[in-house]
Design goal:
Blueprint (H helix, E strand, L loop, with lengths): L6 E3 L5 E4 L2 E2 L5 H12 L7 H9 L7 H16 L16 E4 L2 E4 L7 H17 L3 H12 L14 H27 L4 H13 L4 H13 L3 H19 L5 H11 L24 E2 L12 H11 L16 E5 L6 H11 L7 E6 L10 H11 L11 H12 L4 E6 L4 H4 L10 E6 L10 E4 L5 H12 L1 H5 L2 H11 L3 H13 L5 H8 L5 H4 L1 E2 L2 E2 H9 L4 H12 L4 E3 H8 L6 H16 L4 E5 L5 E4 L2 H14 L2 H27 L14 H7 L1 H13 L3 H18 L2 H18 L2 H17 L3 H17 L3 H15 L5 H18 L2 H17 L3 H18 L2 H17 L3 H18 L2 H16 L4 H4 L3 H14 L2 H17 L3 H17 L3 H19 L1
Helix pairs in contact: 1-2, 1-3, 4-5, 4-6, 5-6, 6-8, 7-8, 8-9, 8-10, 9-10, 13-14, 16-19, 18-20, 23-25, 23-26, 24-27, 27-30, 29-30, 29-31, 30-31, 30-32, 31-32, 32-33, 32-34, 33-34, 34-35, 34-36, 35-36, 36-37, 36-38, 37-38, 38-39, 38-40, 39-40, 40-42, 40-43, 42-43, 43-44, 43-45, 44-45
Length: 995
């Protein structure tokens, strides 16, 4: 992968520099988005979090769409090589979007903040070792990276305020460390000015005053030092009502008495001398030779856990650094901790202890028993080990006092198991791995270890299997990577199986892993097994949490909204107590790292994710431990929940209804539908495959209008085909015909009219034979609209008249509106515009009474088209502006484009150059939307009217080009009515040119 190096600057005004030039980062909101992505570099950030960062508590209704626009603009700036053509080499796409959100990829050394953190950590390490010159140089280099306040000029909402405060504190800590190093080198005079400036900015920070007073005294300015103390005391009294602390008062006294020890730098620090009985102890396991990835994580933990972090006077909240590595089973916590222990061997020369605590296997080991074994390993004779656990802990900590020892506690069960195993004095540190989050250790740094990204996963496979073998079968390699889903244990097992069978093709293992029900059986080699690793965590769950785990295995996908798990677990008749039990079970799964919170919706409703392989194991356990009746009832409740929500969303969004379980306020419905788009389609396929006929048919019907509104063409076909397959398998002829009709409508929308007509004909005939006149009328409405301008206006007229009669007789007011709309379109296509107006005007009145905005907009657009045909431009314009407003409120892009097309046609139709000039803007907008949507019919119609417009303006060359494109489009779409119009316009243009 070729990537252009970009230098990101956040320690001051936000900037990005590539090839020596500043990159254009856009406006304030786009810059805030970049800042948030840089704070979370190489990590996916949800759209909701980005909206919070950009707008705070009051994002606009278009926030998610705006975020996508800002991200697209940044992608163009930061990834100039992305999408390079043949021969140009692959380009990087730094800013990617997936299910988890937006992820900005940065490489080592590209962000000034990361360089600052590395240099500051290096300086602190040197300072603790007494290497003052090295410390001063490293810390000065770190401080020189600052060009102002962090993220200067970027709007700070709550999401960024905490990071800004953290960075400012880190800068101050590095500044104080630098001052300490320079004082130790006997260079006080150069510090006085900078220290004065910092005390002016932070007058309540006593440690800064102490360094200023020391620097002034050693620069032979005792009066200034005493004046500084007076200023510090006044600031503390005025602001906080307190006197200076002990350290500052002692320093003041030393200056008053001219204490000789104050007038010279302290003696260089001497390394601690070990007691004669102490022997450095190294217990950590051997490092993996094929360890890969985790570079940023290694740097981060090393910076947190190094001995200098816990020295006296540190700004770290705990004197002894404690880092907890937590994550799901098999994610590589122990391998990472082991690599760190080897990496930090120079920082902990007195020993690196390793204790495997069996937190997820067998009976829990007590702290007392663990301490006894630990003391024995440290050379304490058995008879000398105290009986009381507290006394054993005291002895253990006394042995570690004043020494530099790293204690690695692997697979901890809970906080109580390890509290007494933590060192008690600075210099030592503890590194803990646990599947539990151990949130009760409030002073510890909790680090989530995530699955590998694609590059890390491929690298591990290459290291074990060999790059040539994998390169020979890239498709099969990709399937293995997908099956393992970034889980290091699964990748290691798969790689080991391939390495042990050089006679196998890579495809052979990929094929075996393709069966979700058997994937865990395949991911076993020797004593490595994904199933055993996951099972250990599962068997430690409470009964309620274990059932919740199994219920997740029944859900259509590993990503799911919180309500879906509650629906699976809870019968509707269950009370509030059961609901609270479900919440507690979910919390237990999160604490055990078997489920992660993926995001929070706009209403604060959580979405969760379970790793794919854990989901497969959960499904195994559900089928093994739960009766079929419970499983089917649970799945049915989840599918019914999806159905209720989609119906409510469609009712509120398309028809402005008031009932149902709507997922949020009306302004949030489009965002909700888009966020659940994949889940909804997956749910339909899952219902169809699982034999849930009523839910499949219900979801397909509810999603039909939603797919039409949101331009989900691919999803529409998938849903309709799934419903068709389920209905055929169930032998339900009505459901088969309805699904065929939905599929026909989806095909017609995409221009596949011949296939659509075949399906319409079969479905309508079947419904007529079954006496299902209402369903048949609905399909006639859609067929009429699809064929009216394709040379079949007479059949379209007959369909619409028949449907209008049925819907009127059955009292289906919305259906009647749509039938009149199809009738108006058919009449207009026959050149009977006055009759079209007469049919459409009552439909407008009915749609207004019903409060159905989409139906109203559709009818108004066609009414305007007919009025234009009658030469009544003023009425047409009024109707079109109303239609445009409704379409835009619904964010219905095809409707908006067709209304713009109609507006352009209205200006272009008379052929007057003065009027025609007004057509270019709406037609240009329509063309852009149709191109974006891939709507070929709209593209051809827009080209026709652009050609007519340019002809009226005298631009014959441009007119001919547009009309030729329109003619080609109409012919390929088999639209003879419009192809004839384009042919006539071209002929007229050529005759005019001949004259």
């Amino acid at each position: 992968m070729v990537h252009t190096r970009v230098e990101f600057k956040v320690l001051g005004p936000l900037a990005a520099v590539a090839d020596g030039r500043d990159l254009p980062l856009g406006g304030p909101k786009q810059r805030t988005l970049l800042a948030m992505l840089l704070v979370n570099a190489n990590t996916a950030v949800s759209g909701e979090r980005l909206c919070d960062a950009v707008w705070g508590a009051a994002p606009p209704a278009s926030a998610q769409a705006n975020i996508r626009s800002y991200a697209a603009a940044l992608r163009k700036v930061l990834s100039p090589g992305a999408g390079a053509g043949p021969g140009q080499g692959p380009g990087e796409d730094r800013l990617s979007q997936g299910n988890g959100g937006y992820r900005l990829q940065v490489f080592p050394g590209e962000v000034d903040l990361h360089r600052f953190e590395v240099l500051a950590a290096r300086g602190r390490t040197a300072l603790a070792a007494g290497e003052h010159r090295a410390a001063a140089d490293a810390l000065k280099e770190a401080l020189d990276l600052w060009r102002g306040g962090p993220f200067e000029g970027v709007a700070h909402h709550d999401a960024l305020l905490g990071e800004v405060a953290r960075l400012e504190e880190a800068r101050l800590a590095a500044f104080e460390d630098h001052a300490e190093a320079r004082l130790a080198l006997g260079e006080p005079r150069e510090l006085v000015g900078p220290l004065r400036a910092e005390t002016a900015r932070y007058p309540l920070r006593e440690s800064l005053w102490a360094k200023l007073m020391t620097a002034q005294y050693r620069s032979h300015q005792p009066g200034d030092a005493l004046q500084s103390y007076a200023l510090a005391r006044a600031a503390l009294r005025d602001e906080l009502g307190i006197d200076p602390g002990d350290e500052l008062r002692r320093l003041h006294h030393a200056i008053l008495t001219r204490d000789p020890e104050l007038g010279a730098p302290p003696a260089p620090a001497q390394p601690a001398r070990l007691a004669d009985a102490w022997q450095p102890t190294v217990q950590v396991p051997s490092d993996d030779s094929d360890f890969t990835g985790r570079g940023r994580l290694l740097e981060r933990v090393a910076a947190l856990i190094g001995p200098s972090v816990g020295r006296p006077g540190s700004t770290t909240p705990c004197a002894v650094p404690v880092v907890i590595l937590t994550g799901l089973p098999g994610v590589g916590k122990t391998a990472l901790a082991t690599r760190l222990a080897h990496h930090l061997r120079g920082d902990f020369p007195d020993g690196r202890l390793f204790l495997h605590l069996d937190g997820t296997r067998g009976p829990q080991r007590t702290p007392g028993a663990i301490l006894a074994n630990l003391l024995l390993s440290l050379g304490v004779p058995g008879p000398s080990i105290p009986e009381a656990t507290e006394e054993r802990a005291a002895l253990y900590r006394s042995l570690l006092a004043d020494r530099k020892v790293l204690v690695l506690l692997d697979d901890a069960r809970d906080e109580a198991q390890i509290r007494m195993l933590l060192p008690g004095t600075p210099g030592s540190a503890a590194l803990v791995t646990s599947r539990a989050r151990l949130a009760g250790l409030t002073d510890a740094h909790l680090i989530d270890v995530d699955p590998f990204d694609d590059e890390e996963a491929q690298d591990l496979l290459r290291r074990i299997v060999g790059p040539q073998r994998l390169a020979a079968e890239p498709e099969a390699t990709g399937r293995i990577l997908a099956a393992c889903a970034g889980l290091p244990l699964a990748l290691r097992v798969a790689a080991a199986r391939l390495a042990s069978r050089p006679d196998w093709q890579v495809r052979r293992l990929a094929d075996r892993l393709a069966d979700e029900r058997g994937v865990l059986a395949e991911l076993t080699v020797g004593d490595l097994a994904v199933r055993a690793c996951v099972a250990a965590g599962y068997h430690g769950l409470s009964p309620d949490a274990a059932r919740a785990f199994r219920a997740i295995g029944l859900l259509p996908a590993p990503q799911f909204p919180g309500w879906a798990l509650s629906a699976a677990l809870l019968d509707p008749a269950a009370g509030a107590g059961h609901e609270r039990a479900a919440d507690r079970a979910t919390d237990a799964l999160i604490d055990a790292n078997l489920v992660q919170v993926e995001s929070l919706g706009g209403q604060g409703q959580p979405r969760y994710r379970m790793h794919d392989l854990l989901h497969a194991y959960a499904a195994e356990r559900a089928h093994a431990e739960e009766p079929e009746s419970w499983r089917r009832a649970a799945v049915a409740r989840v599918l019914d929940g999806w159905l209720a929500r989609v119906r409510a969303a469609g009712d509120q969004l398309i028809r402005r209804g008031t009932g149902g379980h709507a997922p949020g306020a009306a302004g949030d419905l489009v965002g909700w539908l888009e966020s659940e788009r994949t889940s909804l389609v997956t749910a339909v396929g899952f219902a169809a495959g699982g034999g849930y006929g009523p839910q499949t048919a219900g979801l397909a019907a509810a999603l039909e209008d939603v797919c039409h509104l949101r331009n989900w063409w691919d999803e529409w076909e998938q849903v309709a085909r799934a419903a068709l397959d389920r209905a055929a398998a169930d032998g339900d002829p009505v459901a088969v015909a309805v699904a065929q009709g939905s599929l026909a409508r989806a095909r017609a929308v995409r221009g596949r009219v011949d296939d659509a007509l075949t399906r319409y004909a079969g479905a309508i005939a079947q419904l007529d034979a079954l006496g299902e006149e209402h369903h048949a009328a609905r399909l006639r409405i859609h067929r009429s609209f699809a064929i009216a301008d394709r040379g079949m206006a007479e059949l379209a007229h007959d369909d619409a008249v028949s449907a209008a009669a049925v819907t009127n007789r059955l009292g289906d007011k919305h259906g009647h509106v749509m039938a009149l709309r199809s009738l108006g379109f058919a009449l207009s296509c026959q050149g009977r515009d006055a009759e079209a107006v007469a049919a459409l005007e009552p439909a407008v009145a009915t749609a207004e009474r019903l409060g159905h905005p989409l139906a109203l907009a559709d009818v108004l657009q066609l009414l305007a088209w007919a009025e234009t045909g009658r030469g009544r431009a003023e009425r047409a314009a009024r109707h079109l502006h109303r239609a445009l407003a409704e379409y835009r409120a619904l964010r219905h892009r095809p409707g908006e484009a067709y209304a713009l097309l109609a507006l352009g046609r209205m200006h272009a139709e008379p052929g007057d150059p003065g009027q025609a000039a007004w057509a270019l803007a709406p037609l240009g907008e329509a063309a852009a939307i149709f191109t974006e949507l891939g709507e070929r019919r709209g593209e051809a119609l827009t080209a026709l009217w652009l050609g007519i417009t340019h002809a009226a303006l005298g631009a014959t060359g441009r007119a001919a080009s547009e009309l030729t494109a329109a003619l080609s489009g109409f012919r390929s779409l088999r639209m003879p009515f419009w192809a004839g119009r384009a042919r006539r316009e071209l002929d007229g243009l050529r005759r005019s040119a001949g004259r």
